[in-house]
Design a protein that fits this description.
Elements lengths: L1 E6 L6 H13 L6 E6 L15 E5 L9 H13 L3 E5 L1 H14 L3 E6 L9 H9 L5 E4 L2 H6 L7 E3 L15 H7 L6 E6 L8 H14 L3 E6 L5 H7 L6 E5 L4 H5 L4 E4 L12 H8 L4 E4 L4 H4 L7 E3 L4 H13 L1 H18 L2 H16 L1
Parallel strand pairs: 1-2, 1-4, 2-3, 4-5, 5-6, 6-7, 8-9, 8-11, 9-10, 11-12, 12-13
């Protein structure tokens, strides 16, 4: 089977990580040949070039919406003659829907990675334009399909899959703590980009208030983004708040956490299935996350994690201290989190379900 995949880039991000893990899964399947087209020369996962069954093609655009890209893609499709096209993102789907229609190639449209689609936004228009020409519209959560009003006959859900092999090269816990100057027995961390979509405001405000009352907790803010510099200035006097910036070995930091957090801003974003939450849960870290979107499909409240109302500092503080101080709750959440990732959100599950979908589309 020949599959043409197309995405914007391979920068550090949840969608890109999911794509890379899928390619690694397919690398052990002899029946699949893949061409991966990138619309931008941005690769922060260089290991993609080491894959045996994936050829990477980078189309460098001169301008953001370069019309020549369409003709280059037409040429690639004509030469490769794929059995199906798997598009990751809104612009890749826009580029490919007409080519697939004219060449009678099934389009697997996987542009849905969150659970919010604002009416009349560019994403909304691109969805309305491409869905009618897509054989299947794929999301990583049921909440995503509902948010984008995907027709029932076309919509499919395949959850993200975590690859436990990523834990093989984690750094020693002691060395990680020394690197970041951590001397406290308790560590809390949030892994997210510093953008308006994530609620670092609540996370850091609560961290600051707790640090005024106790000195046994270090709060990690793990990620990069346009709002990072401002937050670093605002909280520069809080010694127990650590801003890591962009890190390559996030698994090593997650491994020292006692509690993992993901707070989202519902005014701008609802999560699909968060890779950051999956990584923490797979590591056995009890998690607290904003309820809503695909997070409700990943976390069973009080069983595999804690769900809190968005932007609610009081509720978040209550549960954070509860998980830190109640060993029984912490151990239960940790055990159940590992079990649900292993059974329902593994790379084997994601890869196997995707391959099954490919075969169904082809037939």
């Amino acid at each position: 089977m020949k599959v043409l995949m197309i995405t914007d880039n391979l920068m550090k991000g949840g969608k890109e990580r999911r794509l890379l893990e899928l390619l690694r899964y397919f690398d052990n399947i002899n029946s699949i040949q893949i061409k991966l087209v990138l619309l931008k020369d941005l690769v922060e996962y260089p290991s993609v070039f080491e894959l045996k069954r994936t050829e990477v093609i980078i189309l460098k655009r001169k301008i953001k919406k370069d019309p020549t890209v369409y003709f280059k893609l037409w040429s690639i499709v004509s030469s490769f003659r794929p059995d199906l096209v798997h598009s990751w993102g809104t612009m890749p789907s826009v580029y490919m829907f007409s080519i697939c229609a004219l060449k009678n190639i099934p389009l697997l449209n996987a542009m849905i990675t969150n659970a919010m689609c604002v009416k009349y936004s560019s994403t909304w228009y691109r969805a309305k334009l491409t869905f009618p020409f897509s054989k299947i519209v794929l999301a990583n959560s049921q909440a995503g399909l509902d948010a984008y009003s995907v027709p029932i006959k076309k919509g499919r859900v395949i959850y993200n899959g975590f690859n436990f092999d990523r834990f093989n090269n984690r750094k020693n816990e002691y060395n990680v703590k020394v690197k970041y100057g951590v001397e406290t027995p308790i560590c809390v961390g949030m892994v997210a980009s510093f953008t308006k979509r994530k609620d670092y405001e609540t996370y850091l405000n609560v961290a600051s208030e707790i640090c005024k009352k106790r000195n046994d907790i270090t709060f990690f803010a793990i990620g990069d983004g346009p709002m990072l510099a401002d937050y670093k200035v605002r909280y520069k006097d809080c010694e127990n708040i650590v801003f890591t910036g962009n890190v390559m070995d996030v698994e090593s930091i997650i491994n020292i956490l006692n509690v993992g957090v993901l707070l989202s801003n519902p005014s701008f974003h609802l999560e699909g299935i968060s890779n950051a939450l999956m990584e923490m849960m797979a590591c056995g870290v009890p998690v607290i996350a904003s309820k809503g979107g695909g997070t409700d499909e990943l976390i069973d409240h009080l069983k595999t994690g804690i769900l809190v109302s968005s932007c609610n500092s009081r509720e978040y503080t209550k549960w954070l201290l509860k998980v830190i101080e109640d060993e029984d709750i912490s151990e239960r959440l940790s055990k159940n989190a590992i079990n649900i990732i292993t059974k329902k959100f593994s790379i084997e599950s994601m890869g196997g379900n995707t391959l099954k979908l490919y075969n169904n589309i082809k037939d």
